[in-house]
What we know:
There is one protein chain. The protein has 30 helices and 30 strands. By secondary structure, it is of the alpha/beta class. It has 4 domains: 8-193, ATP-grasp fold, A domain (Dna Ligase, domain 1); 197-335, D-amino Acid Aminotransferase, Chain A, domain 1, CATH 3.30.470.20; 346-475, Phosphohistidine domain (Glucose Oxidase, domain 1), CATH 3.50.30; 479-797, TIM Barrel, CATH 3.20.20.60.
Amino acid sequence: MSPNTPLTLPFSALTNEHVAVVGGKNASLGELYNRLTSQGVRVPDGFATTAAAYGRFLDANHLRAPLTELLARIDPETFAGLQQAGAEARALVQAAALPADVVQAVRTAYRQLCAGRPADVQVGVRSSATAEDLPTASFAGQHDSFLNVRGESAVLAAVQRCYVSLFNDRAIKYRLQQGFDHLRVALSAGVQLMVRSDLASAGVAFTIEPETGHEQLIYLTGSWGLGENVVQGAVNPDEFYLFKPALRQGGRALVRQRLGDKAQTMVYAPNEAGGGLQNTDTPAERRAAFVLSPAEAEQLGHWCLLIEEHYGMPMDVEWAKDGLTGELFIVQARPETIHHGHHALRLHEYRLTEKTPVLTAGKAVGSQIACGVARILTSPAEGHRLQPGDILVADSTSPDWNVVLKKASVIVTNRGGRTSHAAIVARELGVSAVVGTHDATEKIQDGQLITVSCAEGDEGRVYAGRLAWTETEIDLATVPRPSTKPMLILADPDRALTLARYPSQGVGLLRMEFIINNAIRIHPMALVDFARVTDAAERAEIERLTVRYASKPEYFVDQLSQAIAFVAACFYPRPVIVRLSDFKTNEYANLLGGRPFEPQEENPMLGFRGASRYYSPQYREGFRLECQALHRVHHDLGLTNVKAMIPFCRTVEEGRTVVALMQEFGLPRGADGLEVYVMAEIPSNVILAAEFAEVFDGFSIGSNDLTQLTLGLDRDSAIVSSLFDERNPAVKQLLAQVIRAAHASGRPIGLCGQAPSDYPDFARFLVEQGIDSISFTPDALLTGMRNMAEAEQALAAAKAPAVAVLA
């Protein structure tokens, strides 16, 4: 070693080019400090001991030969002897003395760091390993770090403990597995000013969503106290999702936040010399509060974006907030390593390989096979009896069952057809269902082990006991891509990240009522006019849910806008068509506080629903909240891929009234490109399609309602469900008519329904009519795409001119 080789270097002298000198972690800290503080990113100052200092330590104590001999005893294949050799190696390093020149260099650097600050400032001392001949090798997580270190002696001791950690068992094993020479790997100790996050919060951010690799989202987590609890996974932290395009534009970017329980808070232990840490129970009021304000989360998101753009790759970033000054800091950044998004998405097909007598059968929903314990429930109030993985067996379901349904592995009902509530929700939740069995609650015993198969065609069957089946993976890369746009029907925002990876052209139907029922749970008018809610239990629950909000209506707007924004960000820039609420009165009444605001109707399916509700005095202010939520998503967050859709609009005049009311409520059609669609689900929408096209920007055919209103039947009635068929000539004639009218008016038109995936002939009919898009539930998307592609090929072949064959 040259006498002029530095033994310590300040962060201000380090960049990513110094990996071989101070290791990847410290080089990255220097890069952040040097390159990004000028752009406003706060990085705590510090210094690093160099590989040369570690070499001096080994040579001054004559450690190379004994360490080499000790580590050579370990079997590189079986790792026999690892624990004993490691313990002896650590004892050698711990008993050695830091050379005088290294001691002086560390003392000097620490004093310079303390200059202008309170004496003996607290620092973190972190290990950063490197190899001169392998400067890009990663040693992440192999060595130790020490927090809340104060004073020169404590810093020197921590540096030596970092050297010791180079010989912990996991680090030795890692080097053996990677084929690294133990003595050619050096250790640099980074000494960085501690951020007083023990008095505030800290956490981790990924500049892409780590599970799916979604590139438009920054995923940020945090907990109270020092960040080690988050890094180590010791707590359930708060979660924040930030939309990158909005960050680039400098606008609001927080599309979703979720409260974690944050049960433990890591703080400094009472220790005059420093170095002590302890976990304490987090007080209830802090557990119920987010660790960051929206503005703080967006500030961190902006910094993460700058870091990612500087490095040119996804990054894993550690942040901390100082409880004394309120300032945010970035304390570490490294390339992201959790990303699984590069793996091709594969789906699964199932086939039973054995059979037993069928207990009961009905219409199959989905294509899976599952086995579990049957749990017969008579009402949602018994939901506590359903354990995760159980199979729910019930007479029928309605929206107030949704929370219970999310726990079920399969749903089996006595009543309902393939467009009943149970069937629709099962598809949206990604589980199978067997509906309309007539006798499931009689033929299946509570607690019985059963196998449910929806992989045998249109009929779903329930078998006694556990049967064997096979499962086949499908590579999405092999799925044909039709010209007609395939889109998704989506209700549960929690599935948006996964479903955004499917080969769809966007979301053709996002059902707002599912969000209201599951995420919000409260009738909007109960939030607007809370005084009318008289039930004591309901009042208490509403108070509990809205406790963090300045006003009760803001709870509704915030929760709804977050759910919609998250879906829109996941699918961006693909369109997301949001259908405004379409509850029936009996469904609205089941929301918390709903009964005082809802009339009792003999036939809610044809009553106070859809557009008629929005401008009525009974619901007008509730509709205002829906519009405010959409305004926040489309205008404030810049998610201009969102389109609004009005359901069950009976007359053209009603359509004009609703569009005018949306403008009054701050959501004008056309502003920032906002498009407003209408559901074509009533015969009047078809007959007057040209007139509706003057009011709206596009159509989406609701084939379920259009079929039942054309044929005059209740789709939920098991008695007449066999008559429900979108392929009925009367229905097809109306479909052809509305598609022609929409195109004549220059308006796009799509269809939301199950039939195009179930019936290839129906898909071909729609393609022949020139429909622009077809929306499928997730389980039906791939089959639907195949049916559309085959229909397009058949249509092209039919149109191709005949080629004369000469004899």
